[in-house]
Amino acid sequence: MIKLKPEHIVYQTRDALERSLALIDELGTEQLIIANTRSPLNKNNLWFHDLHSTTSEFASDVLQGLDKRPASIPPKYFYDAKGSQLFDAITELPEYYQTRTEIAILQDNAAEIAHHVGTGSLLIEPGGGSCAKVHILLEGLRPMAYVPMDISSQHLRLATEELATTFPWLEIHATCTDFTQIMALPPTAPEGTKVAFFPGSSIGNFDPGDAVEFLTSIAQLVKSEGYLLIGVDMKKDKSILHAAYNDAVGITAQFNLNLLQRINHELDADFELSGWRHKAIYNEQAGRIEMHLVSLREQQISIGQSRFEFASGETIHSENSYKYTTQEFIKLAQQAGFQSVALWVDADNLFSVHLFRVKTVIQE
To answer: 46-246+323-364: CATH homologous superfamily?
Structure first.
């Protein structure tokens, strides 16, 4: 059980407060502390839980990653405020087919998705920083509440404040958290049939074994008969993939290099960005895009008392993005206890959206 601090929870409706009082009886006051305050924008349907990872966790992951050979840093650390903005810009690029293709699939099939899932569910979106795609689903699903989770606090706050204005009937329980480590609902979230929404092919950032573990954690969260609606990028001609991760105007390169800038800013490192370049390649054998930061010269990097040597041409592996055929991904999801309910693919076979239902909750 996570012990929550006062700043973690803001209760803004009587229903939420009543649920909290019930939780006090269950958990005790040491584990649940109430803060009865309103947001500056006075949103009666929005409250925010800040459970974000600490600087020490970021530092530990970076130091351990740079000490390995080849060096690597988890891609979740791309998403500070600037990184989140850069990623939103990437999704608008002509080369980046994923976002517009997935949006088209969701728009074309929103009614069918609602038919399968029904209304009145608790809609959960790990990685819902911009809340952009969920707009397509809300009117059809009419969920009792929406729980977006994201590692970027500022990005999530701005997006959910806008969403609360657009959908005043919707309870929004925004949670800033590293959902790859903690897959848990905030205590204010109501009970009901749970639907997890994981768009954007973010599942591709996990190695296949880790993807099964992550999907298992989703199955444990939504429980038996709960649903998962997930976007998955498909295997395709490598020239299309290469262009998507090496855009002509260089925004993906900025996004990759911003990781080093974040390390400089938050951990007082001394990366010189001019000494590094973005590289993205498709590893056909592994079925994945690999993003790297390539050292352009022999150099030493300092973070506190730690020193790291990089030769010219040596890389920091910053991201993988696995691509799957539809059958490959269905088999992967089955390992996590899901069964396939429906599948939608665009006419060009670029992207797929899967609807799964939990058949068996696997206990780890």
So the answer is: Vaccinia Virus protein VP39 (3.40.50.150)
